[in-house]
Amino acid sequence: MDDINNYIDQSNYHITHYDIAIIVHKVFKSYYRYIGQNKWEFFDKNENIWKSNGKKNLRIDIKTIISDLFITRSLYWYNFSHDVQDINTEIHVKLMADKMLKISNKLKDNVFVSVVIKEAQPFFDIHNND
Q: Is the pTM value of this prediction over 0.85?
């Protein structure tokens, strides 16, 4: 989880679709795959098989799980801001927390999520990652 938190912290400086796509891949690389021609699959853990309609599920997971990761990290930094002694550090940390909340909010937007999925597609492409 620390690895994901590092990526989330780094994306806070850039806030690009690509940076979010990297996080999406890190979190879901074992659960989603792109098979070509705009088709995605997801791994059904209960049945232990790959199923179609993965893009819809990925969209939902980005809007919930990835968004929640940003909220959790925002809360971490906000709580951390109470422990710092230096006012400049406190301001910086609170700004980080605020930006992460904004990213979380963006992850609820269909257009933003669509671009993230498009950016993430090469990471999940089974033809590129054999």
A: yes
Give the pair of three-digit tokens for residue 30.
Answer: 């074992």
DSSP-derived secondary structure for 81-99: HTT---HHHHHHHHHHHHH
Q: Residue 130: helix, strand or coil by DSSP?
A: coil
* Owning domain of residue 63: 2-124
CA 88-92-95 angle, to 5 degrees, is 140
Lowest mean pLDDT among 22-36, 47-61, 86-100: 86-100
- 18 lies in a domain? yes
pLDDT one-digit tens code per residue, 9-37: 887 777 789 999 999 999 999 999 999 99
C-alpha distances out from residue 124 to 32, 52, 65, 121, Å? 7, 14, 18, 5
- 8 domain residue, yes or no: yes
Which residues lie closer than 8 Å to 117 by C-beta, 6 or more apart?
A: 21, 24, 55, 58, 59, 62
What gap in Å lies between CA 125 and CA 130, rounded to an integer? 9
Q: Of 127, 73, 130, whose CA–CA distance to 104 is shortest?
A: 73
